[in-house]
Amino acid sequence: MPRSLLRLLCAASLLFAASGLRPGAAEEYDPWPGLVQDIFANRPMNDGSDIIGIEMPYRAEDAAIVPVTLRTRLAPTDTRRIRNITLVIDQNPSPMAAKFSLGADAGVSEISTRVRVNNYTNVHAVAELSDGQLYVIKTYVKASGGCSAPAAKNPEEAKARIGQMRYRQFARAGEGPTSGVREAQIMIGHPNNSGLQMDQLTQLYIPAFFIDQLKLSQDDEPVLTVEGGISISEDPNIRLTYVSNGAKHFRAEARDTQGHVFEHIWDVDQSGM
Fold first, then answer.
1. What is the DSSP string of 59-82?
2. 3-class SS at 7?
3. Distance in angstroms (rounded) separating the CA atoms of residues 173 and 176
4. How far is CA 185 from CA 38, 84, 182, 242, in A?
5. Model confidence over 23-64: pLDDT tens digits?
6. What is the pTM for the complete model shown?
7. What is the CATH superfamily name and number for domain 3-267?
8. Where does residue 61 rank: exposed (0-12), middle (13-18), buried (19+ CB within 10 A)?
9. Maximum separation of any 2 CA atoms in the chain, in Å
């Protein structure tokens, strides 16, 4: 989407928020039917309450870093699997926040990250299962101004951090050191500029510049692929729960909208932590 259109949409939504209609914004105008057409080609949507869960604060403390957690709810006896989960923040200038593609054998059951929320909005999570069907759930978040909020770090500091990666791993109680359910957290230094933030010195808009793809794997086996947009917060942070295959290494490869590629490989702690 052109940056000029993104700015126009952001300004319009902020004006709407200031009009006093925010508590009923979802009732005044519901963009979801149009988003189903634009993002999902009008494919049928089924009730996803038994398939996927979404957790976000009802009232966000900081609209620029709103936590969101997605959990799978497929019954153990269900032979289907979740192929991908699309996170849609309905009232954001670019509503499709991220698409998470789950590794076929990774057993991903929980994904957490931080997003920008521009206005009081419904947030939808759409899971595509291996049978090709779509399942949707939603929640409601009260927040505004997240898209245009100034960066938390000064530009020079943010520039110096670009591409820096940190990795943390966690083992759940009772699980083995190289097998069973595990958790990992990947943090990437990047301003993730939305294109809607203004430079406080020049009063000019900062061009959009963000991580648009992240691939995570254990050794060479895919765990999670993330297609991101301007709604992912500064310094992207992904935490996930998955099933270890006994790999000795965890790999992350990220790409941003200027074509920079950042890659790092970490040794998996074999001690059981």
1. B-S-TTSEEEEEEE---TT----E
2. helix
3. 9
4. 32, 19, 10, 11
5. 444 457 899 999 999 999 999 999 999 999 999 999 999 999
6. 0.87
7. SoxY domain (2.60.40.2470)
8. exposed
9. 59
